[in-house]
Structure formats: C-alpha cells, structure tokens
Amino acid sequence: MILYVNACARTDSRTDRIASKLLEKLDGDVKEVKLSEIIFPNTNEKFLKERADYIEADNYDDPYFDMAKQFAKADTIVIAAPYWDLSFPAALKQYIEHINVLGITFEYSVEGIPIGLCKAKKLYYVMTAGGAYVPEEFGFGYIKALAMNFYGIKDVELIKAIGLDIIGNDAEAIVQDCISDL
Ligand SMILES: Cc1cc2nc3c(=O)[nH]c(=O)nc-3n(C[C@H](O)[C@H](O)[C@H](O)COP(=O)(O)O)c2cc1C
Predict the structure, then answer these.
(1) Which residue in 1, 7, 56, 165 could disulfide with 130, CB within 3.0 to 4.6 Å?
(2) CA 87, CA 90: separation in Å to the nearest integer?
(3) Looking at residue 164, what is its pLDDT?
(4) In sequence order, which residues have a C-beta less than 8 Å from that of residue 162 and are 6 or more positions away?
(5) Distances (CA, A) of 131 to 7, 34, 85
(6) Residues 101, 43 contacting (CB under 8 angstroms)
C-alpha cells in the first residue's frame, strides 16, 4: 500500500499535481489522507493523559490509533506539502503529532534512542515553493530527520519545484519540468 499524505490545501495545488504524477509512476494501491479534511483532536492535557494511559496499558484498540497504524504498515509513503512560512502547513505537523505513537511507529531503546517500527522502505517528499529562498531544514530536513531516526525509513527523496510565484517565471513550465524528471 502506498500512503499519500496530502497536505495541499488548494483545489488546483501544483504540489498535489506533481505528487499525483509520481503516484501514477509508483506501483501499488494508493490510500490518500487529505489533511485539510481532518479535524485533529486538541493535544491538551486531558487528551495527552488519555493517550498515555492507552499506551501504558499497551491498548491500541481505540480508532484514534488507526492513523498511526496505517502509517506504520504502508510500503511507501508520499508526502505532498507546499512550502509555507519556511516550512509546511500546520496540518502536517498535527498529523505527525498524532502518528508518532510509542509502540506503533517507533519505540525507544533502553538508552533512549528511537527505533523505527514502520514498514516503509521509501518516503518521497514533494514540495513546491513560491520564491527562491527555500532552505530545507525546517520542512524537508525535519521530515527527513523524523523518517530516518524515528520511523526507520532510510531512503528519503525530495522532489521540488520552486520559484513558482516569481513574476516573470513560467510556473507551468517549472511544474512540467519537475514532472518530466520524475
Ligand atoms: C500560507 C502561505 C505561506 C507561504 N509561505 C511561503 C514561503 O515561506 N516561501 C515561499 O517561497 N513561498 C511561500 N508560499 C507560496 C507557496 O509555497 C507556493 O505558492 C506553492 O507553490 C503553493 O503550493 P500549491 O500550488 O500546491 O498550493 C506561501 C503560500 C501560502 C499560502
């Protein structure tokens, strides 16, 4: 199963268009999680306590854990996220907070080092940006660190198209170039 984590908000999202072409090239059933349609629980104290109690009891039966289980059992993961405010949409951070579940997506060694429990061998991160100042550390770099160190997914690839909102740039040509390089 290929898990498509779609953090794109706009109907005519360029990031989603590139990711959809990538998904056509990958072999397998695609399950999409459209983050803009999910209302995530508020991670307040009550919620955190309830979740910690379930985890401590090794009880992962509550449907809340389905999203983390789905992530852990995917063969390939494709994340599509526009570049927002030097990073990615907050909905993706919310998703991460709810799939990072001790005992499902990762566990800790006795030394406190995370050990990945995810099945996926590869994670693609598809990103488009409006400008040309696009440092990677707060967006792709963060996801890569999570994938490699928490989930145990060592093969992480960035696919990007940038400069799409710069006046004078042919955004459509940049998107098509990116698609033809897939
Ligand atoms: C809320 C918001 C924040 C953005 N922040 C940045 C940014 O920090 N740097 C940048 O280069 N472009 C930024 N952009 C422009 C988007 O990255 C760009 O338009 C992107 O291609 C949008 O992807 P989409 O077509 O998939 O929606 C921002 C756009 C929005 C809506």
Answers:
(1) 165
(2) 9
(3) 98
(4) 83, 128, 129, 131, 132, 134, 174
(5) 19, 25, 11
(6) no
What pLDDT digit, counting tens, does each position of 70-126 carry?
999 999 999 999 999 999 999 999 999 999 999 999 999 999 999 999 999 999 999
Strand partners, 31: 3
Question: What are the structure tokens assigned to 50, written together?
Answer: 């309830």
Q: Residue with structure tokens 């990945």?
A: 116
Burial class (CB in 10 A: 0-12, 13-18, 19+), 59: exposed
Mean pLDDT over all residues of the chain?
A: 97
Q: Which domains does the chain have, with CATH numbers?
A: 2-180 (3.40.50.360)
Q: Whose CA is nearest to atom 23 of ligand 1?
A: 82
Give the mutation target among 84, 87, 92 for probing the ligand 1 site: most ligand atoms within 8 A of CB: 84
Q: List, chain by chain if needed, residues with CB within 6 Å of any ligand 1 atom.
A: 8, 10, 13-16, 82-86, 128-131, 134, 164-165
pLDDT given for residue 27 in this prediction = 86
